[in-house]
Amino acid sequence: MNAPFALSCSTVRLANLHDPGEVARLEGFVARHPEGTPFHRPAWFVSVARATGNEAHALVQERGGDIVAFLPLDAVHSPIFGRVLASTGFAVGGGLLAHVGADVEAMFAAAEELARRLSCPSIELRGGRLPPAGEGWGLKTESHANFARPLAADDDTQLQAIPRKQRAEVRKSLGSDLTVEVGTSERDRAAHYEVFCESYRNLGTPVFPRALLDGVVDAFGNNADILTVRHEGRPVSSVISIYHAGAVMPYWGGGTWAARRLRANERMYYELMLHARRRGCIIFDFGRSKTGSGAYHFKRNWGFEPEPLTYATWTAPGSKVREADPTSSKLSLQIAIWQRLPLALANRLGPPIARGIG
């Protein structure tokens, strides 16, 4: 599998992800590239593949011994949704990173060849350099948007930067009997997963296996943590955040039914803004949301403006387009049923299904 793909003036090959030196080269490339994201890091795509029983791959293009293009990929298998080669799995970002002069067409051709080798009828590129539409590739625009803005210089300015109605909710949360903890201990992880499971069940979405969340926290080390809001000692809101290039990204978060009454989610995100600034962050990246969704409007209420995203998908000739969007209208009945499951049953059934959503 490490044989070179088609040559031009550069060589495209599969990286050896079992070689610590190769992995370090890739981490360095992502860190230096202006469009690199946490989801391009081997710490992400290798960890999520290992934790979910999927496969991690990486295409690199080299010229004169230097990496000029890099495409991280997770081959995700689901008996329900089929197989997909995603850049990257369980992420809202990824895609091709390339320097000026790189042969990007060769990278896309290599990705198609790899997909065929792995019997993946679909490829999803969630950002980065994208191929033109045609010859199996399609572009999806306006379906999702990202939300990011600079952090304020101090606590009070941060509060004042929140629009009036949302600021009033935050103020109410500050007056509630809530406590905030940040860490990555077993106590932090257990509290987060307890909240996360209930939140996902309430949304009608199969919950990810805890091994996936733990794997990312472990791999990112000091660049990840868990912030949990408790009421009378019990966790009611919690979020795993990733730190990259001066930005904090709250990624896996949620709240219990009690969180809404207590405004615990408002407290969680406000406290994370303050915590991230104290860590030296300058950007709060609220992540992506489906256009028009509840999460989309929630982020706008905080004063964040949507930035439309464009993704690319490839479908092998004769194959059906993959459908694994949990917000799809085609899955509305399944979502409604899932929301009514007893929590213990949802927690048992969810991880085997979710590890194949990708």
UniProtKB/TrEMBL annotation:
It comes from the Bacteria. It holds the Pfam family Acetyltransf_6. Residues 166-300 form the BioF2-like acetyltransferase domain. This is FemAB.
